[in-house]
Design goal:
31% strand, two-stranded antiparallel ribbon, alpha+beta, 60s Ribosomal Protein L30, Chain: A, 2 helices, six-stranded mixed β-sheet
């Protein structure tokens, strides 16, 4: 890939975008993963609890970063959007199962509303190792 170019990443292990955006874009060695909702791909609907939605969103992120040629260990930054900040602890418990130290940098925000009335949305940035 030439410097400054960008390539979309498409993973069958993650839900299709609900708007005009890519699941992720790779530019140079950076992978920008769009916000992932906790969508159950088999049932084609959101998980029923915030824990299930968090797990499903993280599984989508893992599928996308893997499709891009990386792994969860390559993720350096995440952003978590919550419909209710009272879910912060439950989300943390599930989220922590997907990463080991050093953990990615992270921000978490409560927002007024998420697409499809989701309870959580997670986006990530990864840096791919030299190949």
């Amino acid at each position: 890939m030439k410097e400054g170019s960008k390539t979309a990443v498409v993973s069958l292990g993650a839900s299709e975008p609900v708007g005009p955006y890519s699941q992720a874009v790779v530019s140079n060695s950076l992978v920008f993963i769009s916000g992932q909702l906790g969508m159950d791909l088999k049932r084609k609907r959101l998980g029923e609890t915030v824990e299930e939605q968090t797990r499903l969103a993280m599984e989508s992120i893992r599928a996308i970063v893997t499709q891009a040629g990386g792994s969860l260990d390559d993720i350096v930054k995440t952003t978590i959007l919550l419909a209710d900040m009272d879910d912060f602890g439950a989300v943390n418990q599930v989220y922590a199962r997907f990463f080991s130290e050093p953990y990615p940098a992270r921000a978490a925000y409560q927002v007024a509303k998420l697409p499809l009335d989701a309870m959580v949305e997670i986006e990530a940035v990864a840096i791919l190792k030299e190949r």
